[in-house]
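Hello again, I could really use a second opinion on something today. I've been staring at a protein lately and its backbone has me curious. You're getting the sequence in one-letter code plus the fold written as tokens. I'd be grateful if you could look everything over and explain what you see. No rush at all, and the record is pasted right below:
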Amino acid sequence: MRDSRVAVSTLILGTVFTILSTLTAFPADAFPHHPARSRVAVHRAQHAFIRHVVTRHVVRGVAHYRHHVVYRHVVHSAGISCVPFARKDSGIELPGNAWQWWDHAAGVYARGHVPQPGSVLAFRANPHMRLGHVAVVTRVINAREIVIDHANWSHGRVSRGMPVVDVSEANDWSAVRVGLGDGGEFGSVYPTYGFIYDRADTGTMVAAVHAPAPEPVLNPAPRDLRPAAERPWKVYEEVAEAPNGPRHHVVTPRTAGEPAQRGGLDRK
């Protein structure tokens, strides 16, 4: 706003200066005396010349204002990254890239796996997002759903009021999916560290005291960007079928460490 006021003031002063300069520098013989030319005609010609000069100056000034004030502001807003945005919105001051925030917060800021308004959700680095990501929690809906504000998730823009859902099996917010827009669909599965809180670290990691909430039913994830060892997996066991009949499969879940049954296939 201050830049706008300064630009408008500069434009006005420049216009006035141009008018005065034009009047003082107006050539005496620009309109030589002619018996047939009346005083009124000379004045009209002078005024037309001045209007032409002033109009040209104003048009150039407006173009300069739009380029250096308006467009500069738009480009600056569009180019912000997630880290400076999270610092400003949360008040949490940490150095480094987004993927480094979790470790840098140790001993400085409290951390945990329970969402709280004003906390920062720290995303881990992955093949799709090598520098990680940070987002500010603005609202907690329930144990599985929150709303965030963040920057540079999509083409450098600031996105506010974006829904995020925890899809981790333990409901510890170690894997999330971010809303894609107003259609109600969610994107890929992203691995996360947890939440950084704007208060001193007490040496205790904040953890949920309730049992894991049921996982929400969402559209199929385009990708699962967690390491392969962290993705859920199931064993598909082929069962007996009648001769020449259709082939059926039964899905049999098994826990980590349980040996695969004969003929089973691991599905990542």
Q: What stands out?
A: The two ends are 53 Å apart (CA to CA). Confidence is low (pLDDT under 50) at residues 1-8, 61-78, 234-268. The chain has four helices and ten strands. Helices lie at 2-24, 39-78, 82-90, 101-105.
